[in-house]
């Protein structure tokens, strides 16, 4: 049995920030979940659609692992990433750091994890591993999934080796903080401006504020698009509100990040951004409720209203990001 000692293994709302939080606390850096999310320039939007999908997907953050790369680069942390197609090497890549007293981050498919409450394939799930014995791996996942949890070594191997959308090849990673670490406060403005610039100038129309505007046009058609709207639409709403987003498609997290920043930096543009994202978070929760109601009732008027709110959200978030670029 191997176990990293003296760890704070609390779960948070989102998987990647939960894992990052534990790895950084082990390095002596304790940041709030909104601060982790914001310093990683984590907020985004994507309207993801393809012919193979029963219903389009509304995503509210950057792609998996980009947040980790952003955060570690911005703070000057050493990020060591390992990937392999070899099951034996994949295990060595996690066992060796844990044996040496260092927790390890893993990207995997949550479908195979024994403790996971909803069995859906998601290859961009991130956990932190801090111990193992002959049968089980000991992990930290989100608070809704149980925080400090265990899964069999066999299930962990399947989860890590799964192939499909957003998966990685047995990806594992460690983070090391150097002596003389850049104070996180000094990196707030670059993080916000990077996030705002990407949101305002997306390369394709499915991303950023343009993606929200596209969703405003397409969501009213979802009853016709889905073969099983009674199941698909409420499920889409759950993904927006409760599936690790922190609520309101990650807007609650970004609102709280801006609020924390406003306590550290006195700036009118920052306060404007916070005010607008406070408004946006409420509207995103309303959109999710309307989508769920449409699926449950079969009434397309709910989706028409959702489309109208999404149109307003495209305007609000564009204005918020424009203000934040002026920091």
From TrEMBL:
Residues 155-324 form the DUF4872 domain. InterPro entries: BtrH_N (IPR026935), DUF4872 (IPR032369). Pfam families: BtrH_N, DUF4872. Residues 14-142 form the Butirosin biosynthesis protein H N-terminal domain. This is BtrH N-terminal domain-containing protein. It comes from Streptomyces erythrochromogenes.
């Amino acid at each position: 049995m191997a176990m990293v000692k003296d760890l704070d293994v609390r779960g948070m709302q989102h998987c990647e920030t939960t894992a990052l939080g534990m790895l950084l606390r082990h390095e002596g850096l304790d940041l709030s979940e909104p601060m982790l999310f914001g310093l990683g320039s984590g907020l985004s939007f994507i309207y993801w659609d393809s012919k193979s999908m029963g219903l389009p997907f509304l995503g509210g953050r950057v792609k998996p692992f980009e947040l980790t790369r952003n955060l570690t680069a911005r703070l000057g942390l050493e990020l060591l990433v390992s990937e392999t197609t070899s099951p034996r090497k994949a295990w060595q890549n996690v066992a060796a750091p844990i044996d040496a007293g260092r927790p390890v981050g893993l990207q995997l498919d949550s479908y195979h994890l024994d403790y996971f409450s909803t069995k859906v394939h998601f290859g961009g799930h991130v956990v932190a591993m801090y111990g193992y014995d002959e049968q089980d791996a000991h992990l930290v996942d989100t608070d809704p999934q149980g925080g400090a949890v265990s899964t069999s070594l066999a299930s962990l191997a399947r989860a890590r080796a799964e192939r499909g959308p957003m998966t990685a090849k047995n990806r594992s990673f460690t983070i090391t903080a150097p002596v003389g670490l850049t104070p996180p406060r000094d990196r707030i403005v670059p993080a916000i401006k990077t996030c705002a610039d990407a949101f305002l100038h997306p390369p394709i129309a499915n991303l950023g504020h343009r993606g929200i505007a596209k969703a405003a046009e397409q969501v009213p058609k979802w009853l016709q698009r889905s073969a099983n709207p009674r199941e698909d639409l409420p499920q889409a709403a759950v993904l927006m509100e409760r599936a690790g987003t922190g609520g309101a498609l990650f807007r609650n997290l970004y609102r709280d990040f801006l609020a924390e920043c406003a306590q550290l930096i006195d700036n009118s543009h920052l306060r404007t951004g916070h005010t607008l994202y406070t408004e946006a978070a409420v509207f995103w929760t309303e959109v999710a409720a309307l989508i769920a109601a449409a699926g449950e009732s079969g009434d397309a008027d709910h989706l028409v209203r959702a489309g109208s709110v999404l149109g307003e959200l495209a305007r609000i978030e564009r204005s918020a990001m424009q203000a934040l670029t002026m920091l």
